[in-house]
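Let's inspect one such protein example.
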Amino acid sequence: MSRTLFTFSFFGMPTKVKFSVFLGLDAIALILALIAKFLFGFSVMDAIVVGIVGALLHGLSGVLHQYGHFLMARRSGYPSNGLIMWWILGTTLYPEDEGALPPQIHIQRASGGALMSGLVALAVALVLFGLNPQGAIIRFLLGWVLLESLLVFTLGALLPPIEIGTFTNDGAVILREWRKMRSQGQ
């Protein structure tokens, strides 16, 4: 991972931001701006605004997802050390010396992100469809957060299970630990 650019605390969750986050957010901003311009017919200026704000909302959605892990880890009695944000993703940090934990603890901690993102998706859906806000930019951005929270940070975090190098998504952790529980007869 690239060097840490800055750190902050998100409601008690220590958060490190790597330089690569800015490259990832730039890519998301560009893609969203192009979609807004060429698929939705936004003006160039409106498309740029959509791209920038949409990329920032992606970052916030990612932090909220990781905050779900942070809260569940604290609730489990095996707390997290915080979050590292890199490229377009984030990784919840756990103590290296915490030793072996029961599968139920890993499942509880891994499920926290999807649960939080599901709640974000529900809240955004209620605003988008219940309040029916006016303005194409607002509706586009709410739709973006809804789709990303639901498809990427909720369902995508769980299915399909992915393990690539040191990256393991929540679904892979849950499946691995569930298999351990079954093999142990729990």
Observations:
- Residues 4-183 form one domain.
